[in-house]
Design brief:
It is found in: Nucleus; Secreted, Extracellular exosome. GO terms for molecular function: mRNA (cytidine-5-)-methyltransferase activity; tRNA (cytidine-5-)-methyltransferase activity; tRNA binding. This is tRNA (cytosine(34)-C(5))-methyltransferase. It is a single chain. It contains 23 helices and 31 strands. The strands form eight sheets. Strands 9, 10, 11, 14, 15, 16, 17, 20, 21 and 25 form a ten-stranded mixed beta sheet that branches. It has a five-stranded antiparallel beta sheet with strand order 22-23-24-26-27. A hairpin with a 4-residue loop joins strand 30 and strand 31. Helix 4 runs antiparallel to helix 6 (about 140-155). The longest helix has 20 residues, at about 285-305.
Amino acid sequence: MGRRARDRRRQLQPQQRRERSGGGGGDDQAGWAGGYPEIVKENELFERYYREQRIVPDGEWDAFMAALREPLPATLRITGYKSHAREILHCLKEKYFRELQHLEVDGQKVEMPQALSWYPEELAWHTNLSRKILRKSPQLERFHQFLVSETECGNISRQEAVSMIPPLLLNVNPDHKILDMCAAPGSKTAQLIEMLHADMNVPFPKGFVIANDVDNKRCYLLVHQAKRLNSPCIMVVNHDASSIPNLQVDVDGRKEILFYDRILCDVPCSGDGTMRKNIDVWKKWTTQNSLQLHGLQLRIATRGVEQLAEGGRMVYSTCSLNPIENEAVIASLLEKSQGALELADVSSELPGLKRMPGITKWKVMLKDGQWFEEWKDVPSNRQTQIRPTMFPIKEEEKLKAMNLERCIRILPHHQNTGGFFVAVLIKKSPMPWNKRQPKVHQKLPGKTEDTEVTATNADDGSEDATEKPTLAEDEEPKKVQELQNSDTEQSKKGVCGPPPSKKMKLFGFKEDPFVFLPEDDPLFLPIQKFYALDPSFPKMNLLTRTQEGKKRQLYMVSKELRNVLLNNSEKMKVINTGIKVWSRNSDGEQFGCAFRLAQEGIYTLYPFIHARIVNVCIEDVKILLTQENPFLSKFSSETQRKVKDMAMGSIVLKYEPDPEKPDDLQCPIVLCGWQGKTSLRAFVPKNERLHYLRMMGVEVFKAKRKEGESEGKTEEEVQCRPAQTEEGMDVEDKERDAVTKMEAEIDEESPHSPVESSAMEIENKSEDSDQFSTNTNSHISQESKDMNTNNVKD
């Protein structure tokens, strides 16, 4: 019976396939591509709306619409603060790009990647290469594998070009305290971290980045992105940006409110500037999206300027072209500030970037096409959808003083990018409703390392709450109605006052605690002795994620983030902070120290280590990275001599470039290693191994082949085995699966494109689950719950 049923199914399958594809072949299938119905890139309401708003210069409308219908070029950014950034750029230009110069695929010459003219030091590039083309040539496939592997190492970030603009306009210095209000998925956050570490000789910059996102699930993706950069100066938190709490810090024994020097306010938006990559926007676009989001955007921006320090700079940005989400929000914020804020003139910054000035006149349209030019024209039954803050300022003098033309709008056809909006705000004085600075006069008693301070409400219109152990998913903030009814009455009366307070809510699960090591903890003394740590080593900044039992991992944060953590543990939901510097080794105690060095934090630790350092030559480095557990006899005689009398255990392997050998790698390398009785090995994640080998000129490309085929090796194709998995890695297999699952779910939320996808997917959203390295350096304590996100956020 089962066999007959299978035979019937086999007979029906060809017929069913023909029916699903339109009943026939050839022309009947013209409406299908890759299994998805073709999306017509037309929207009459969209064209009517933006023609009327006049955001496009006269005579450029056809070019504007034509650009929107073209696929978006893929862009990449070379991580700027790494000491080997120049080596990566040299490798790209002299090796991979040179291979593409005269390459032809299917009779067509491959278009060369181009540097973004406005991005400093040629560290950002764009290309039109599609995934289909990449598969047709071994040279292109090798280029693609290079990009994927370097992205996982954190040396390259795949990010949309316009998305790189806001962090550049923040003008970050290494001592700045920075808040990223809506940070996920984290590409802009990564830029901010790079700017903090502009001087790689300073392991602990005085500044820090607090990266926030309302979506608990996307916070873990944000952790994954930030962790690639191995910085002790990043903290990921989970709050509603419109009610993010005031934090307090200890300043000379007193608690003071923390104000930020720089704030990035990249708010959720309707995303019609992303039509080139999210083509579903073509059929889903309506003015209703911007009307619903305007209130939320204004609340988030208002909360941002409240927490900005005087003289500080906040960048407001959206991936939308709509003035309701852009100029209307900025104009309302400026009007309420009564001179406390001003728009900065950034016309001289980022030379080479083509931009349009902000507009001063616009209209409001309902989704049915009905226009309104003034608030007084809106009927009462529409006043829940349309708010007075959506309309332009009518008083000419006040409007002129706002300088809205200083806003920046990026149009897609000017430089082959997506659409974008940026405004840079400077805070000259406290906000009118905050003229009296919040007073916190708590004198801190002599406190121990694990002191927890409960926060009090501040005088800035925000309300703080104590974290609950668990909050259900259905307690997500109401997305539309609650966020729209804040300032209507005040705007009617022309009264300027504080925005209505909104109670802070916490999401997801309670994280494992962050426990700082007490000064007298006996755990640290053997470590200090074994590695001969410098007396200046800031041991008070070491922390663990457990209060009981054996401490398996030791993490480290900067002194400034330690201050934030100790004084805000009850009011702030911290998802992740710190980098792993030591990991417990099951056999380590017999070698004098139970903790071995972790590669993730070696560049932070190295300046403080004075023992167990072995300088190796470039040939030794190649052996360490290509062989799993090589015998000591394979290394140079100099290396053998150095380790001969050294006790077994964890060591530091340091390569210093030789200026007299310009053909060799010209950037230093620091690796974590282990010395055994007769062998010497490196504990380095696989993708990091491949990165160093590429920089040394060793070809590590591995062509795809059938499973079971023998693995031949040549000098030009070194097949590196996967890096040894470090015992006690902070991420369990199920936690890595959780991150991969979350990435896949986030990808599913994006519209499916029936057209050919690009070689590098924007914002580092991986195309396959294997994009996530098995050595993901985040310490996740719980899988996050699903949360539906409908708003587009670049």
